[in-house]
Amino acid sequence: MKLEIVILAAGQGRRMHSDLPKVLHTLAGKPMLAHVIECARALSPQKIHLVTGYGTEQVRTAVDDAHICWHLQQHQQGTGHAVQQALPEVADEHLVLVLYGDVPLLEPQTLQTMLQGLSDCDLMLLTANFEETADLGRIVRDSQGRVVRIVERRDADPATLALREMNTGVLAARAGQLKHWLGQVGNDNAQQEYYLTDCIALAAGGGHTVKALVCEDGEATLGINDKSQLARAERICQRRAAARLMERGVTLMDPERIDIRGELQVGRDVVIDVNAVFEGQNRLGDGVRIGANTVLINTTVGDGTQIHAHSHIEEAQIGSACRLGPFARIRPQARLGDGAQVGNFVEIKKSDIGAGSKINHLSYIGDTQLGEQVNVGAGTITCNYDGARKHRTIIGDHVFVGSDTQFVAPVIIGKGATIGAGSTITKDVAAGSLAVARSKQEAVENWKRPEKKS
Ligand code: UD1
Ligand code: CA
Asked: Among all ligands shown, which has an atom nearest to the Cα of 194?
């Protein structure tokens, strides 16, 4: 039977205390709604319907998916009312699966199993047992264990409140029947809303069979209504990501202390120390080691490269067998050739660093093309900005740069040249020559130091 999925995402999420629509708060680097859509897509439905309301424009921009059918719920009058915005576009004989945009950790396999249950019932629910009291709808069963209704927490008496089987928000039925039940739902309840969950009593009362799949993994059904649930869900996502990395052979010094906000591709024998943060798309080659407290953003790292602690690397391409940090700062459009070394307190921006070159201490290299096997001494600065424009520094292969040198760009240093320490280089330097640009040392013999008067 053909499947269509309706995702509810119209609510503001008042309990988040935020201007951002709730479903756009991020988990593992992407909006929680994107997780729900991804899960929905894995079920290969005929169509995915998205019901939005609060912050529709923001949600549309964030999702930007041409295959989604959008529905506007002008006023948020409840989950039942929200589903009704999409149903007119669903053929009666199709199956409808309803997902909530704020329940982002479900896995497709669970939903698949649940949908199979529809072969011998009219309405399928996904439920979970919770030990702690939660702000969730209670599943009420009769003496034979049949589901008869769902009671929202705010409408529950103490006995119902004590029930431990809860509604996850996921429900499936044939569209024709769901339309019929929803048509009869009223709003006579604590929140004066049209609850989707009232369909259960209507179905059961009308002699239809309602079944529930009890989800073993309660964590995966977590709904996010506030920042503390968001933080909890983030940790669950991170734990899952860490488990996937370890399955692939990555050594994590502590799987509880890693954050992957995007996608991380890894080779063999990668070792990652604690508190590493990976944002966007990152790729680590074989044998890469990432030091503690390092941040990598949209970066590629070649085989055997070691990045030492406290380094921050953004939109860079790092070659093989390089050594970076501790405390290296690599900014966008930096490319490091194989075997390059960048040490502590070195900042590199929009520069090509040739293979085997070393910039080991306290330097700024920006808008620079640096050749191979260049040695850059401590405290070297490329003065790339004249207050209005940026200029390039070009340094040939095998150049030796003495410590505390400034290159006032634009400037070109020929191959094999040597720059004396403490130089301010304002003119091009010919290949193979020595350039020294500092005042000459003077000596005054028998110099008498000033003395304090007694
Ligand atoms: C809902 C369920 C509850 C269940 C819980 C699971 C109802 C009435 N209650 O409660 O039984 O245990 O989820 O997490 O369904 N939404 C709209 N339009 C609306 C109202 C809500 O699109 O008018 C969307 C929200 O954006 C959200 C989802 O529906 O993504 C759930 O709404 P929410 O208000 O969070 O319901 P809960 O109180 O969590
Ligand atoms: Ca919710």
From this structure: 1
Q: Give the largest CA-CA distance in the chain.
A: 113
Q: How far is the CA of 73 from the centre of ligand 2 (A)?
A: 17
The Å distance, Cα 264 to ligand 2 centre, comes to 30
Q: Are 175 and 154 in contact (CB under 8 A)?
A: no
Cβ atoms of 341 and 323 within 8 Å: the answer is yes
| Pocket flag, ligand 1, residue 343 (CB < 6 Å) | no
* Tens digits of residue pLDDT in 104-158: 999 999 999 999 999 999 999 999 999 887 899 999 999 999 999 999 999 999 9
Residue 338 identity: D
Reduced to 3 states (helix: H, G, I; strand: E, B; else coil), residue 284 is: strand
CA gap 232, 277 in Å, rounded: 18
Q: Which one of the ligands is nearest to 169 CA?
A: 1
pTM for this predicted structure? 0.94
Q: What is the C-alpha to C-alpha distance for residues 376 and 235, in angstroms, rounded to an integer?
A: 42
Runs of H (alpha helix) within 190-304: 198-205, 227-247
Q: Which of the listed residues 6, 33, 100 should we mutate to test ligand 1's pocket, taking the one with most ligand atoms within 8 A of CB? A: 100
Known catalytic residue at 361: yes
